[in-house]
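RECORD TYPE: inverse folding
INPUT: structure tokens
STRUCTURE:
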């Protein structure tokens, strides 16, 4: 069951995958927003308004990748508490970052939903 009002920020550079995840999460009762890379995500997070309950983060992106995004997020006390679910084609490379969950691409729909629900 999805907690009411659970906001999720999807950070993914593939527009088709990003759109599909937004649609999927909306159908499950989440309130998804999306960003095309880490820089856009940080700009959204630093804008006035509520923060998401969880961030779903692709690691390999242009302009600002997942590593740099995580460093910036952890340095900002207003954002550091937000759990991150990492999605990566090479998940073993990302095990050393502080993440709520690390899932490999292509991701398992049920595992992604479970990882998000645990953090909402």
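DESIGNED SEQUENCE:
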């Amino acid at each position: 069951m999805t907690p009411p009002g659970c906001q999720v920020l999807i950070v993914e550079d593939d527009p088709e995958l990003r759109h599909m995840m937004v649609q999927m999460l909306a159908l499950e009762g989440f309130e998804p927003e999306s960003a095309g890379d880490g820089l856009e995500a940080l700009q959204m997070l630093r804008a006035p308004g509520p923060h998401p309950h969880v961030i779903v983060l692709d690691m390999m992106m242009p302009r600002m990748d997942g590593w740099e995004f995580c460093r910036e997020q952890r340095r900002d006390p207003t954002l550091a508490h937000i759990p991150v679910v990492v999605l990566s084609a090479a998940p073993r490379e990302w095990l050393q970052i502080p993440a709520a969950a690390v899932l490999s691409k292509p991701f398992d729909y049920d595992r992604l939903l479970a990882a998000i629900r645990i953090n909402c």
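NOTES: The chain has a mean pLDDT of 90.
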